[in-house]
Amino acid sequence: MCCLGGSSQTEVKQGVARYGDGLATLKSTEDAVGGMQEELEALQPQLRAARAAAEAMVTQVGAKPQPAAASYVCSFIHLRNSTP
Fold first, then answer.
1. pTM, whole model, 2 decimals?
2. Alpha helix segments (H runs only) across the chain
3. Which of 20, 21, 27, 51 is 20 to 30 Å from 65 at the Cα level?
4. How far apart are CA 58 and CA 66, in angstroms?
5. Phi, psi torsion values for 9, nearest 5 degrees
6. pLDDT on residue 33
7. What contacts 9, CB < 8 A, 6 or more positions away?
């Protein structure tokens, strides 16, 4: 680096420092993503069980008549029709 002027040497050093910082950031991000991936993989059985329970609940709710909701709708329609 004997031929570079002072400002060029400073620019090169700053570029090298930024490059090093960028590599460190990439490594840190890679580690964080790897940890999150492991957590997601560990949660898969719980997610499958929760999905199955939710689907069963939807099926069960859909199969049962909803008298409270039906009577509310009927009352609303009756009030609406009786109001001048």
1. 0.48
2. 6-63, 67-82
3. 51
4. 13
5. -65, -40
6. 96
7. 1
